Model the fold of this input.
Amino acid sequence: MKVPLTKVSIISESLLKEEVIELIRKHGATGHTLTKVEGEGSEGRHASDWGGRNVKIETLVSSEVADAIMKDLSDEYFEDYSVIAWLVEVTVLRGDKFLKK
Amino acid sequence: MKVPLTKVSIISESLLKEEVIELIRKHGATGHTLTKVEGEGSEGRHASDWGGRNVKIETLVSSEVADAIMKDLSDEYFEDYSVIAWLVEVTVLRGDKFLKK
Amino acid sequence: MKVPLTKVSIISESLLKEEVIELIRKHGATGHTLTKVEGEGSEGRHASDWGGRNVKIETLVSSEVADAIMKDLSDEYFEDYSVIAWLVEVTVLRGDKFLKK
Done:
C-alpha cells in the first residue's frame, strides 16, 4: 500500500509554470501540485525583481524519473533562469499509481 | 532538543479540509499547517475540475501515528476522493511536544 | 551536480518574517522561499488567534548551518513565540551554490 517514491520540488518564476509542467509530464509524472511562493535566490535577487510571484511545483515519481527531470531542468533552465530544484525520499499512500507504466 | 518525527502531507479537495483535520486530530496530531494549493491528479483531472482550490494539510507526528493516519485516510477517502498523502522523515526542533502523550 | 543538503522549514507568525529571514541569512543561507500558510499549534491555538496568516520559510543549507539556525531559533523564539521548525535531508540540483563559502 505504501510505496517509496521521490518527491521533486521545483521553484521557478511563474512564467515558466506551463513549460515546467510539460517537462515533468514528458518524463511520466502523472500529477503535480502548485503552490504560490515568494523567494529570494542565491544570487540575492529579491522577489520583486522576479516580475511577480514564483511557483513551487511538486510531483511524486520514481527515482529514475526524478533524475531524468533534474537533468532536463538543469539543461534547459539553469543557465538563464532562477530555477531551484530538490529531491526528497518519501513514502506515498497508494504510490503505485504514481509510477510510470 | 531535536526529535525524529514523521511529517504527514495530505492534499485534498478543500471541502474535505475539516474532515481530514478531524481525522488527524483523532489520532493524536497536536497541530497542523494548511496551505492553499492547486493540483492535477494522477487521473489527469485539471484543477478547474475540482471545484476550487485544494488544500495541503501537514502535521508532525510519531511514525506510529503517521501509519494510523495513512490507514484511516486510505479507508475513508481513497475510493471516492482525490486525496494524496505521503510521509517524510524529519528532525523537529522541540519535537517532543508533538508526540502523543 | 546533485548535492546533499538540509532543508530547514520554519513556520512562524507573519510578524516575525523579517527577523527570521535575518536570522537564517546571518548563518549563511543564500536564499529562501516564503509560503503563506495557516496553522493550529500544539497548544491548540486557532489560526484566527494568531492575528493573521502565518508564513513558512524554507531554506537549503549545509547540515552545520541547519543546526546553527535551529539552535538560534530555539534560543530566540521558542519560549515566547509559536515557531515550529524541522529539518529534512534533500538532494539539490546545483546545490553547491547554496553552500556557505
